[in-house]
Amino acid sequence: MPHDPQASPLPEHAPDAVLAAFRKSIDNIDAAIIHMLAERFRITQAVGEYKARATLPPADPEREARQIARLRKLSEDADLDPEFSEKFLRFIIDEVIRHHERAAAG
């Protein structure tokens, strides 16, 4: 049974199995996020190399705008703050563009 935060605190020596289970799940999710980001960057690196060979620009502002709008909608549907999602995606897109610029420069 979860610990009631309004009740008296748990003794310091008592392990909190509920908290440990939550933290294990968070750790697993964090690991999955890292692996997914690594895979995403492997793919976008290949895109950057392709764009460099095809002499395409490193950035595609129209696609970026579509992606941000699409992910904001997904965020709303998932009850996740769309502002946070947009900031997170913008951070990733900016990093991808830097990779593409490096690929274009040789």
UniProtKB/TrEMBL annotation:
Record flagged with keyword rRNA-binding: no
Primary enzyme class: isomerase
Gene Ontology MF term list: chorismate mutase activity
Residue ranges of domain Chorismate mutase in the record: 13-104
Pfam families with a match to the protein in the record: CM_2
A GO biological process held by the record: salicylic acid biosynthetic process
Record flagged with keyword Isomerase: yes
EC number of the protein: 5.4.99.5
InterPro entries: Chorismate_II_sf (IPR036263), Chorismate_mutase-related (IPR051331), CM_bact (IPR010951), CM_dom_sf (IPR036979), CM_II_prokaryot (IPR002701)
Keyword line: Isomerase
Protein's name according to its UniProt entry: chorismate mutase
Originating species: Erythrobacter neustonensis
